[in-house]
Backbone:
């Protein structure tokens, strides 16, 4: 059993004033659920304080509640998450990235339900999901109710007319918990007769002191034969999309073109830059590709654990992402950031345990290293006692 209290900061007294307090009984799993209605007159208070205290007064914990536009969400150990207990998430895939008129759009969606109490995600099975399809003019052209299967999947196939509109078609999924929209492109698309690849030896980051930018342009037909004697134009752009250098040449007998540039003598390549390779073979057929590189040193990692309180015989899965930022200019003339995911990154994960958890978290001094994991792509950790 524990007591909770909600306080707000009273500026006139420069102190916290009590809003409400109550006693709660935990269940067999140690959970205690309480619901608080924030009074209308509290709209001007953007930060509240939540205090949890055991009935004997020997253990106490405090955290802050920050106000969003339309709800309060909790902040725990420096991170904020919505308190929506039934948040639905969708992982949507299609069999192609671009469709042409007359084809079929094959769509599949994995529907996940975020469990607030378990801090985990589970598939939403045998549940009806409303689907609305929009044409490129954003007019609804189809309505349906689909039911997720035992794996949380729903599928749908949309046939396109030969004279259908060109643009983005929207697939909107609707549940009582909210809406989610996924767009896919329909355009007249012809697959090029050969592929173009930019190879810099797996290097995606060039520091401000790294001046040597070099690599190969690989050009080959889809059946494997190299494209020999093709004209290559390599253009280096700054993050604003402005061309800063052009390199031209011809592919050799292996279908390769070697390029090299000294970044020190190319102006305005701070933060990020991109390159585009345009290739024309001896028959006049064209193909191109592009790639973005970052000059921002910092790496960023994000991860979450599911579930965060496993029993000794249970699995616990840890999902994480590693990326760098790249800079680009928006259509409105402003600059912004985008994510550059990093593949094949060496990872070290250490798992610690605590013997005899103290009343106050700040008093933890006896952490014990339980296990260390190394690898390139670690996602599932099996935690035993």
Residues:
């Amino acid at each position: 059993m524990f007591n909770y209290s909600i306080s707000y900061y009273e500026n006139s007294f420069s102190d916290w004033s009590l809003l409400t307090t109550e006693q709660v009984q935990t269940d067999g799993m140690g959970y205690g659920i309480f619901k608080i209605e924030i009074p209308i007159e509290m709209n001007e208070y953007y930060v509240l304080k939540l205090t949890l205290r055991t009935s004997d007064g020997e253990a106490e914990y405090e955290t802050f509640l920050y106000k969003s536009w339309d709800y309060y969400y909790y902040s725990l150990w420096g991170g904020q998450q919505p308190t929506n207990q039934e948040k639905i998430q969708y992982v949507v895939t299609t069999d192609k990235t671009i469709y042409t008129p007359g084809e079929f759009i094959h769509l599949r969606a994995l529907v996940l339900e975020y469990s607030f109490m378990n801090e985990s995600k589970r598939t939403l099975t045998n549940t009806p999901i409303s689907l609305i399809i929009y044409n490129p003019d954003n007019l609804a052209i189809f309505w349906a109710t689909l039911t997720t299967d035992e794996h949380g999947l729903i599928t749908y196939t949309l046939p396109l007319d030969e004279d259908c509109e060109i643009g983005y078609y929207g697939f909107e999924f609707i549940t009582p918990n909210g809406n989610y929209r996924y767009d896919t492109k329909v355009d007249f698309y012809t697959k090029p007769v050969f592929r173009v690849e930019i190879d810099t030896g797996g290097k995606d980051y060039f520091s401000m002191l790294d001046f040597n930018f070099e690599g190969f342009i690989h050009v080959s037909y889809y059946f494997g034969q190299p494209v020999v004697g093709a004209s290559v134009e390599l253009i280096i752009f700054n993050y604003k999309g402005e061309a800063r250098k052009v390199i031209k040449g011809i592919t050799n007998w292996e279908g390769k073109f070697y390029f090299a540039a000294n970044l020190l003598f190319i102006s305005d390549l701070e933060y990020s830059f991109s390159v585009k390779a345009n290739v024309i073979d001896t028959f006049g057929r064209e193909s191109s590709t592009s790639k973005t590189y970052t000059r921002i040193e910092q790496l960023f990692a994000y991860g979450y654990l599911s579930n965060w309180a496993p029993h000794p015989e249970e699995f616990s899965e840890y999902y994480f992402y590693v990326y760098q930022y790249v800079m680009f200019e928006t259509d409105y003339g402003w600059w912004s950031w985008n994510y550059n995911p990093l593949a094949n990154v060496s990872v070290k994960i250490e798992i610690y345990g605590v013997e005899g958890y103290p009343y106050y978290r700040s008093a933890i001094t006896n952490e014990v290293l339980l296990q260390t994991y190394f690898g390139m792509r670690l996602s599932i950790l099996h935690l035993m006692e």
